[in-house]
Amino acid sequence: MSAASVTIVAVVVASLLMVLPAGCAREKTKPRKPVPPGSFGLPFIGQTFRFLRALRTNTGEEWLHQQASTYGPVSRLSLFGCPTAMLAGASGNKFIFASSAVINKKPESMARMIGRRTIRDVEGEDHRRVRAIMMQFLRPDACKRYVASIDDEVQRHLDAEWHGRGTVAVMSSMKDLTFDLMCTVIFTLGRDGEGNAFRQELSTEFRQMVKGITAVPLNLPFTSFSKCLAASQRARRMVAGVIKERRAKLESGQSSPADDVITQMIAEGLPEEEIIDNVMLLMIAAHDTSASLLTFLIRHLDANRDAYDKVVQEQEEIARCKAPGEALTWENLGKMRYTWAAALETLRVVPPIFVINRQTIDDIEFGGYRIPKGWQVLQTTTTTQWDPIIFPDPGRFEPARFENPSAIPPYCFIPFGGGPHICPGNEFARVETLVTMHYIVTRFRWKLAAGCDGSYTRSPHLFPSQGLLIDLEPIVQERNA
């Protein structure tokens, strides 16, 4: 090679080194960490079918524990066509809640049903703004004001739907109740003839809509998703009508932002679409999450008579101190420690198994591995909530574990999330659960109906066999005046 050729090659190489990204040079001095161990399985399909089969057969816990025991607390797999990092353990839970590079993400079907600008979707200042609005109506001092209204709504429901009936499908009943509680307390929808008709229509649309959250998002005629999307659009129009009415009252001075969460959102200047999205999310939470907790609490108390007897004893002591027709108070709820411990134990024993609602927006490192940008993050709850080191004999229903919740190690029990994204409605859920259980256990005895074995499935949401059918026996009320 001539001297001129050598010179040309040297110049080209030097030029390439100058234009190469700085990151490439760093790669040679600081190799990137490997991606987590595991397997993506077949292209696109991955482990999706096996995972869904495990949910349907109620072996999801075993499936996830097998993944963790095979590959460790950080592993990779492919679910629903996306590369996924599974994080198991308390440190993984903490990392997910604390990392700014892991953001909320929901399936396309859910986004189409609920909207894309809910409190779960926005980040940073937008998230803090919406959260502050919601917390004005969901924080403890606000919930304290709701006790009498919740008391009235619960008694109304039990009088109409339980009294005089031999058998009740608990899940359906609790969905109706929790939906009405949200309508009455948070959105202040009326209880007159027109208001009841509006509630009934809105509830019907929501029942159809929630079926589409886990449907394949194909908006074709005659598909289930298409029917559910149409129900969502009708529900959104109904909510838009409420917003229009509240806006007119606010502008004319007939209402104030403190009246309800919708009026507060209007006063804060949130766009109408964002208000509708957040109302839809709150309704979904009321319709499914709280109803599921109440249903499975009733199921576990039926199967664990010692716990049932302690709940009854606690609630009867409170009932004996009340005059006939006197509503419960905030102070009464403070004495229901064992009942709430039983509710928390229910959430531990029957967790949702997994949460795929987060995605990385940058390469992140955890546990010695690199999780690339754009991967889904699979958060598992059973790996801590069923860990025998943290919760001895985890398959046993033992509410006493939660009589002192501060004794539970951080990020080992996360039914309401954690960090800046902790569920804003956890205190409201506590109040409605305690008031409801007070009137159920002091007014009725129950047992599983013939043919109902108390089993349940996840597809992917929790649902008890036959909606948890129970036979009712009314209790004669004997209260001190």
TrEMBL record:
Gene3D superfamilies noted in UniProt: Cytochrome P450
Entry superkingdom: Eukaryota
Database matches in Pfam families: p450 (PF00067)
Annotated GO biological process: sterol metabolic process
Co-factor requirement: heme
Signal peptide region: 1-25
Family annotation (CDD domains): CYP90-like
Example GO molecular function: oxidoreductase activity, acting on paired donors, with incorporation or reduction of molecular oxygen
Database matches in SUPFAM superfamilies: Cytochrome P450
Protein keywords: Heme, Iron, Metal-binding, Monooxygenase, Oxidoreductase, Signal
InterPro entries tied to this protein: Cyt_P450 (IPR001128), Cyt_P450_B (IPR002397), Cyt_P450_CS (IPR017972), Cyt_P450_sf (IPR036396)
Coiled-coil annotated residue ranges, if any: none
PANTHER family found in the cross-reference section: CYTOCHROME P450 26 (PTHR24286), CYTOCHROME P450 FAMILY 718 (PTHR24286:SF364)
Family according to the record: Belongs to the cytochrome P450 family.
Protein name: Cytochrome P450 716B1
Lineage: Eukaryota, Viridiplantae, Streptophyta, Embryophyta, Tracheophyta
Designated gene of the protein: ga27656
